[in-house]
Amino acid sequence: MSIKAFLFDLDGVIVDTAIYHYQAWKRLANELGFDISEAFNERLKGVSRMESLDLILEHGGLTLPDEKKVELAAQKNAWYLELVSRMTPEDILPGVASFFAQVRKAGLKTALGSVSKNAGTILDRIGMSEAFDAVIDGNKISKGKPDPEVFTKGAAELGFSPTECVVFEDAVAGVEAGKRGGMFVVGLGSPEILAQADLVAPSLEALTVEEVLAKAS
Ligand code: BG6
Ligand code: MG
Questions:
Q1: Class of the CATH-defined domain 5-15+91-216
Q2: What's the whole-model pTM score?
Q3: Which of 79, 88, 184, 217 has CB atoms 3.0–4.6 Å from 24's, for a disulfide?
């Protein structure tokens, strides 16, 4: 089966919003009287807002009523949006523009597969709202990563089967989602952390489309 489409995660793949999520969650944890480390933050990557909050509260040994949790999640999101509002096209990660030019030249289709409900806002801020043939975000799915829904929906919207798609992910949960969806998965980050991926590179800058197609086909 030949590869027809590339499905991209947003946070940590196209832009480094992963650091803003971390900063906002850390601020919230600190206000609640505990801290979260960068290593712990790996577990939050690709995980939905409410599920992330549950993991953080569990880490801090806190059990809170649902109304309070909704309030805390809204507070974190407000801090996060404050950080995101300062983003510009200059925040697009190195290598993304050149990689997308190669993707187009190769005639491949693209989809965004992000569990973030803020994906549309971020794409606007960085001038990439028109860059994808399909956009699946947190508003279109009912299950976050590691469930494969965000990627299987992307493939379906483009009209391809999972085996015709390659997923690009920086998160453990996202790599698992792509594998469970039946796709070839490129992990962007550390090979130790993203051990489940079919291919690992430090970032899109370190890859060419030709190389990915050769490995995935
Ligand atoms: C993912 C991030 O893309 O979106 C997670 O990797 C984040 O860290 C999730 O929790 C949900 O994002 P949002 O913007 O809907 O709170
Ligand atoms: Mg990510």
A1: alpha beta
A2: 0.94
A3: 79
